[in-house]
Specification:
Chain lengths: 421, 421
């Protein structure tokens, strides 16, 4: 579409170092002063003394903790160091994307080391500082979603599973393959929602349509699935045709706020992250409007233990407008309409595992990705995937699955044993 | 203890009708005016037009709904009618307790009919009106707990299970006996907490000690269990001696705010209702203080879908100081300390079933109860138990079990399948 195609899909170059920083080898530029060291040590302490090593531009190492460092960050110049200390997340991401800042050792381990330690209140203010400018109005959401999900289905095909499921999988055991784990996730969701053949389901934010097609195929329901990503909807429609399910699964290119009609179940997997806190009541109103007295609902989202925006770099370059809610914040969707929360499951370790699969596939396809985009894009997405592994494995991010129903609906499952049979 | 023994344990008589209302048969008093009828109909509409019949003092019936009435409320005089319309919950409970207001038909069905319909905003303001005067300070909590839990172990023995478990049971299937369901509940809790032999557990609000003893006996842990009910602690200590567990289970007559030491797990079943919203952060601080990096926690509480105090009569006569939180409100305990919610299960239908067992046993023992207290006490407790059945069966009250852990603790169960094996 004409308005969206003007939005840049690539990672723009920012804060490129002054030419002199690397090219001139003058003593003034390469010298590491005692002020540099003092500042860096104070900064590392404020960051919770993570088990990382910082290698400065003269080759000198600075460590915060006594513990052995997982990996090392190579800081190329004073300008990068100062920017890291004033906008840690943004500067790290930008310098890493540009290739100016390099990591020696395992990137996931480095990021885990950073996430594992509690930062000081001062550093927390620093980390929370950047405002989020990406409003999730009807128009803003289209822009935000287009930036991430319309990078091309060929790109996502390189590293997602065969069905292009781009949300946390469910591994009955950790060794299960990614393909099987995505199937198991879809079945887990269907059981939680208690789908019965012949029922009508609405799905808000359906990605490439895998869950909608699974529900129709395996559970005999009819589905109306909404999404504002042009490329995803086109793919999903073609898939429905191919599988002979076009009569029972309708893919609609529209915003969740425009969902109409009544359904037996409301399902949303991986959309709430993109709704934004300001619009939780809108979403609640939509769910309230479309569920009758026996209606059930299901929300699956990345979340937090305490209120905190996404990493500033992620929000700026990867997921504009996104926000991971706490369980308390999620209740802004459900509480105003008296929905009854029946079940909450936190699958954060499953998301860490899912992301490890994605990262490994992405690395194997990195040459193809570089030829589709460029090396800066490869580095940005490597950082995003590695950072996500680290965030879930250290409990900085959570994955909440919330099942709910109308308060008077008593035909709810007696126990949860049926999820495990 | 001297200060507590002065607290009245019985239901005080209130709002006795003027002698003339029933004794004088004058036309002025027994006549039902068109204003009475008009007011009552308007009131019933505001209450959501419940499927109940109101029989007035002249024998005339007034119904709100077209639907057949579940049961009838006999209103003895105009004064009671007017009081019902200005303080519905309080007046109903008081007049029922006094024996002035009678119910024809099944009390649970009548109350379910009342709970099942949505009240008007005006009626909701009326229902929310009474302030709650029972502060949960250290001293206030002792008073509040004493009023309910120190009614005498002999009384509770008449209608609870053999182990005196006075919280929602867990019925693997609805037909399981109450005794087995309480055992199943204790096992369910232990599995959710992931107890390992040799671990140390702290329990806040331990009732008569059944869970603490179960954890030590069946899972080989040592337990420090806190409670401010004198009678319950005395019973629990005797029980620990009898079972030879006194060396591993320590029952402490003290407030949860005074819990000290470090433990592998924090468990609290049926205490949060008595903590009061003002003190959720205190409770969170206690949990934060006593759990190390691998610590796990568990909270089991009566709750709501949206913020609403207990029924005014219940709060005044049955559970002074109690409040059933929403899931959002519960997060005030956990979110400030970054606890990671792993699992929430809503067992409201299990509590309705538990309460039906208690009510049936209570009815069978009602003559004994009357001889221990009086008929007013029997009616008050009948109303409390029947009202609780109705509240849980209609989704007015919820039962939340919330499992949580420290954010960095990765030795959490991979799935929840182990709860169902």
């Amino acid at each position: 579409m004409s308005t969206e195609s003007r939005i840049p899909l690539f990672i723009p170059e920012v804060a490129a170092p002054a030419a002199g920083d690397r090219k001139l080898g003058s003593a003034r530029l390469t010298r590491v002063s005692s002020a540099d060291r003092w500042l860096l040590r104070a900064f590392l302490r404020a960051m919770g003394s993570p088990a990382v090593r910082v290698v400065l531009w003269n080759g000198e190492s600075v460590c915060a903790a006594g513990a052995p460092a997982a990996a090392a960050v190579q800081v190329p110049d004073r300008r990068t160091l100062l920017r890291l200390m004033s906008h840690p997340e943004l500067a790290f991401g930008e310098a890493y994307t540009d290739g100016r800042l390099r990591v020696d050792g395992d990137l996931v381990e480095l990021l885990e080391a950073l996430y594992r330690v509690p930062v000081s209140p001062w550093a927390e203010r620093l980390l929370r500082r950047p405002p989020r400018p990406h409003a999730n109005t009807l128009r803003g959401s289209r822009h935000n979603i287009h930036r991430h999900y319309d990078l091309g289905n060929d790109f996502y095909r390189l590293w997602l599973d065969a069905r292009l499921v781009y949300t946390c999988a469910y591994f009955p055991t950790p060794a299960v393959s990614l393909e099987d784990a995505q199937l198991a996730k879809m079945e887990h969701v269907c059981r939680k929602v208690g789908l019965q053949a012949g029922e009508r389901v609405v799905e808000a934010g359906c990605g490439w349509g895998a869950l909608a097609l699974y529900m129709a195929r395996q559970h005999g329901v009819s589905v109306r699935a909404f999404n504002i990503s042009t490329e995803q909807i086109a793919y999903a429609r073609a898939q429905a045709q191919k599988e002979g399910l076009a009569g029972r699964v309708e893919f609609i290119e529209d915003d969740y706020r425009n969902v109409s009609g009544q359904y037996d179940a409301f399902v949303s997997v991986g959309m709430l992250e993109h709704v934004g806190m300001d619009h939780y009541r809108d979403l609640g109103r939509v769910i309230d409007r479309c569920l009758p007295a026996h209606g059930r609902g299901f929300l699956h989202t990345i979340g937090r233990n305490r209120p905190l925006a996404f990493n500033a770099w992620t929000e700026k370059y990867i997921f504009p407008g996104a926000y991971p809610p706490t369980l308390r914040e999620m209740m802004d969707v459900l509480e105003p309409y008296s929905f009854s929360v029946l079940d909450v499951e936190n699958l954060r370790l499953h998301y860490a595992t899912t992301l490890r699969h994605w990262l490994a596939r992405f690395e194997r396809a990195s040459d193809r990705v570089a030829s589709m985009f460029d090396d800066r894009f490869v580095r940005a997405w490597r950082l995003y995937l590695a950072g996500s592994v680290a965030a879930f494995s250290t409990g900085s991010l959570q994955l909440f699955q919330v099942s709910f129903a109308r308060p008077l609906h008593n035909a709810i499952p007696w126990t949860r044993a049926h999820l495990y049979q």
